[in-house]
Amino acid sequence: MNLREKYGIPANAVVTIAGTVGVGKSTMTKALAEALQFRTSFEKVDTNPYLDKFYEDFEKWSFHLQVYFLAERFKEQKRIFEYGGGFIQDRSIYEDTGIFAKMHYDKGTMNPTDYETYTNLFDAMVMTPYFPHPDLLVYLEGPVDDIIGRIQERGRAMEQQTPHAYWYEMHERYENWINNFNACPVLRLNINDYDLMANPEQVEGIVERIAYMMEQTLHLRK
Ligand SMILES: Nc1ncnc2c1ncn2[C@@H]1O[C@H](COP(=O)(O)OP(=O)(O)O)[C@@H](O)[C@H]1O
Ligand SMILES: Nc1ncnc2c1ncn2[C@H]1C[C@H](O)[C@@H](COP(=O)(O)O)O1
C-alpha cells in the first residue's frame, strides 16, 4: 500500500506547491510525487528562451516572459486535465499574476498597457473548463536569508547576480499574497520544520497533513 492509499488521498487529486524562488518547491514536488505515486508538472527553467534575458533587462522582457510562462502553464493545466488529475505541480499559475506580473508592474518594469493585456489574457485563459482549481495549495515559507542562501547554492547565475533587494521584496509580497489567497485550500509548511534532503522519511508526516486538510475541506464542501 502506498502513502496515498494509506492516508486516503484521492487518486485524481491535484496538489500545487507554491512559494518564493529557492524555497524548495521542486524538492517538495519530487518527494510528494514519489510518495503518492503521482505525476509531476515542473517549470522548465533550462529551456525557457526568455528567462536569462529577463534577468538582464526586466523592462524589455517582462511581457514576453509572462506570456511565455502563461502559455507553458496553461499547456500543463491541459495535460493535468487530460490525465484526470493525480498530479503534483511545481508552482501555481496564481503566482504568475499575483506575484511576478504585479511586482514588475508596480516597480515600473512592466508597462501599464502590457500589464493590462497580460491580465486580460490571464483572466480569459483561466476561466475555461481546462482550469479546475487545485484541491490543495501547499505553501512553503521560511526566513528570507535562508532562502537566499539556497538560491546562491543552487547556482543559477542569473539568480545569483540579481540584487538581494529583489528577493526581499518578493518574499514580502508572497507573505501578503498568501494571507489573502482564497482560490483553493492552503496548507502552510515552514522550511525549518522539515528537511526532505536530510530526512526523506519526513514526507510521510507531510502526506498525513495533506490528507487531513483535504478531508476537512471535503467535509466543508458537502
Ligand atoms: N531541506 C533543504 N536543505 C537545504 N537545501 C535545500 C533543502 N531543500 C531544497 N534545498 C536546495 O535549495 C535549492 C532550491 O530548492 P528548489 O527545490 O530548487 O526550490 P524552488 O523549486 O522553490 O526554486 C536547491 O539547490 C535545493 O537542492
Ligand atoms: N511568472 C514569472 N515571472 C518571472 N519570473 C518567473 C515567473 N515564474 C517563475 N519565474 C522565475 C523565477 C526563477 O528564476 C525561475 C524558476 O522559479 P523557481 O521558483 O526556482 O521554480 O523562474
TrEMBL record:
It comes from the Bacteria. This is Deoxynucleoside kinase. Belongs to the DCK/DGK family. Keywords: Kinase, Transferase. Gene3D superfamilies: P-loop containing nucleotide triphosphate hydrolases. The keyword Kinase applies. GO terms for molecular function: kinase activity. Residues 16-212 form the Deoxynucleoside kinase domain.
